[in-house]
Design goal:
This protein has 193 residues and is mainly α. The protein is built from 6 helices and no strands. Helix 2 runs parallel beside helix 4 and helix 4 packs antiparallel against helix 5.
C-alpha cells in the first residue's frame, strides 16, 4: 500500500508540474509541445516515438500500480520509491530553473536562453534524468515484463532525443557558449574536471 501511495503521489506531482507548466506557458502565448513539429527525418521520428513511448509507459505505470504486484524484494522496491521521488524533485527543479525556456521538444522558431544555472550546473539534462528516475523507480516498485519493455523503450528514446536532437539544436543555436558549457557539465549528472 505504501508503494502505491508513493507512486501515485509522485506521478500526480510530476505530471501536474509538466501539464501545469504547459498550461501556464500556453496562457502567455508560448507553445510548449514542440515534439515532432517543424522537423523531418530522424529527428521527427525520435520525437514522435519518444512521445508515444512516454504515453505508453505512463499508462503501463498506472495499470501496474493499480494491479500492485511485483517480483522485486522490499529493498529493491524501497530503492525504486527513492528513485521515483528523486526524479520528481529533479524534474520540478529543472522545469522551474528553465522558466520560459522549457519546451517538450525543440523549437527552431522560438528564441530561448541557454540555461546553465541552478540544477543545470550539475546536469545538462535534469528534466530527462527526472523522467528516467521516475520511470525506473516505478518499474522497481511494480516490476512486470510489459512495464520493463516500455520503460526501456522510453529511456532509449529520451537518450536519442538528447544526443541526436537536443544537443545538435543547442550547438546550432548557442554555438561556443553551449560547447563551453558541455565541457564543464556531464550529460546526466556531475561536473567535469
Amino acid at each position: 500500500m505504501v508503494f502505491k501511495a508513493i507512486s501515485i503521489i509522485a506521478l500526480i506531482i510530476f505530471y501536474g508540474c509538466y501539464f501545469g507548466k504547459m498550461i501556464r506557458q500556453k496562457s502567455r502565448g508560448i507553445q510548449t509541445d514542440q515534439l515532432g513539429k517543424g522537423k523531418s527525418g530522424f529527428g521527427k521520428f525520435v520525437e514522435i516515438t519518444m512521445k508515444i513511448a512516454a504515453v505508453l509507459v505512463a499508462a503501463a505505470e498506472i495499470v501496474s500500480i493499480f494491479i500492485g504486484t511485483s517480483i522485486c524484494p522490499a529493498a529493491v522496491r524501497i530503492i525504486g520509491a527513492v528513485m521515483s521521488v528523486s526524479g520528481t524533485v529533479l524534474f520540478i527543479a529543472a522545469v522551474s530553473t528553465m522558466r520560459d525556456s522549457w519546451r517538450a521538444g525543440v523549437s527552431k522558431t522560438d528564441k530561448t536562453e541557454l540555461v546553465t544555472n541552478g540544477i543545470f550546473r550539475i546536469s545538462r539534462n535534469p528534466a530527462f534524468l527526472g523522467f528516467d528516475l521516475l520511470y525506473i523507480g516505478i518499474l522497481l516498485m511494480f516490476f512486470n515484463g510489459i512495464l520493463c519493455a516500455l520503460t526501456v523503450l522510453a529511456a532509449v528514446m529520451y537518450h536519442l532525443q538528447i544526443v541526436y536532437v537536443e544537443e545538435k539544436f543547442l550547438v546550432d543555436s548557442f554555438g561556443n557558449e553551449y560547447l563551453q558549457y558541455k565541457k564543464k557539465v556531464r550529460r546526466c549528472f556531475g561536473r567535469k574536471r
